[in-house]
Amino acid sequence: MSEKVESGNTGPVKADQVIDLKGLLCPMPVVKLSIAVKKLPTGAVVEGIATDPGVMADIPAWARTSGNELISIDQQGKEYHFVVRKVK
Question: Is residue 47 among the annotated active site residues?
C-alpha cells in the first residue's frame, strides 16, 4: 500500500529534518511528528521513518486535520516512510 502525492515539483523532495519513529506505537509517531513540525518554519519538510503500520492511516489523517501537506507515504520492507511539508 503506497500513496504518492505529486506537489508539482520535479524530482524527490529533500527533507529539512528526518525523525526516527521506529519502535514507537500509536499515538507516539503522530505526537513526535507534531512536535517536530511545530519547531520548523513554514515550508519545511519532515521525513519520518516508523515501524508501526498504524501510521499508514494516522499520518494522512493528521495531515488533513492539521492543515499540513502529506507529500508521500509508503511501505519499504518493515518500515513506513512518509514526507510532510509544514503549511502553517
Answer: no
State the catalytic residue, choosing from 24, 26, 40, 56: 26
The CATH homologous superfamily to which domain 14-85 belongs is: TusA-like domain (3.30.110.40)
Q: In this structure, are residues 82 and 17 in contact, taking their beta carbons and an 8 Å threshold?
A: no
Termini Cα distance of the chain = 28
Task: Give the length of the chain.
Answer: 88
Tell me which of 6 and 85 has the higher pLDDT.
85
pTM of the predicted structure, to 2 decimals: 0.85
